[in-house]
Write a structure and sequence with these properties.
- Keywords: Disulfide bond, EGF-like domain, Membrane, Signal, Transmembrane, Transmembrane helix.
- This is EGF-like domain-containing protein.
- This protein is an alpha+beta fold.
- The protein is built from four helices and ten strands; from the N terminus they run αββββββββββααα.
- The strands form five sheets. The chain has a two-stranded antiparallel sheet. A two-stranded antiparallel sheet has the order 3-4. Strands 5-6 form a two-stranded antiparallel sheet.
- Helix 3 crosses helix 4.
- It is elongated, with a radius of gyration of 36 Å.
Length: 184
């Protein structure tokens, strides 16, 4: 398709207006933590950015010649200490929040919460191949069952020997198990 001459002339008339508005400076409504001074945002103490939207995380009140920080708080970097450092994750698009890799959490992805760890590995196990999962769970179930059974028998034998030595009578093992674990 070809563009008509009238459309081309309108575009040429509108173009300078767009450039003028773009060069006029930030919108006074958009200077978040500061005020407009000579067409630019003048940021309040502790903020930086073209519209004063980025918080500085300086460790001291000293400032460099350009107004940046001389030292940053733990977990922050950059000349204005406004870029987050993530230990187990990546900064989001704004560089002020971390997107943590599971099972990590916290502001800098440096915390491991028990529930997050359990949830992460339970989800991982559930997503595994069911055959592979059953190969690991069935033997574990058999081991738990065998340990519980053996433990009950040992406990019953100990009680039986203790009662025999104090009562001086022969006791049936089945009676002792019935007393300990109920009828079977």
């Amino acid at each position: 398709r070809s563009i008509s001459t009238a459309t081309m002339h309108r575009a040429l008339l509108v173009l300078p207006l767009v450039f003028f508005l773009a060069e006029a400076g930030p919108n006074p409504q958009r200077c978040i933590h500061g005020k407009i001074q000579m067409g630019k945002c003048e940021c309040d103490e502790g903020y930086t950015g073209s519209i004063c939207h980025r918080e500085m995380h300086c460790s001291t009140f000293e400032r460099a010649g350009n107004g940046g920080c001389t030292a940053c708080l733990e977990g922050w970097e950059g000349s204005d200490c406004d870029v987050i450092r993530c230990e187990n994750g990546q900064p989001d698009q704004s560089d002020v929040r971390c997107v943590c890799e599971p099972p990590y959490s916290g502001e800098h992805c440096d915390e491991l919460e028990r529930n997050n760890v359990y949830s992460h590995y339970n989800n991982k196990a559930a997503s595994m191949n069911p055959v592979l999962l059953s190969i690991t769970i069935i033997p574990l179930g058999i081991i738990v069952w065998a340990c519980n059974t053996y433990s009950k028998k040992r406990r019953a034998k100990k009680v039986e020997h203790l009662l025999e030595s104090t009562v001086n009578r022969d006791l049936k093992s089945s009676h002792v198990r019935e007393l300990l674990y109920g009828k079977k």
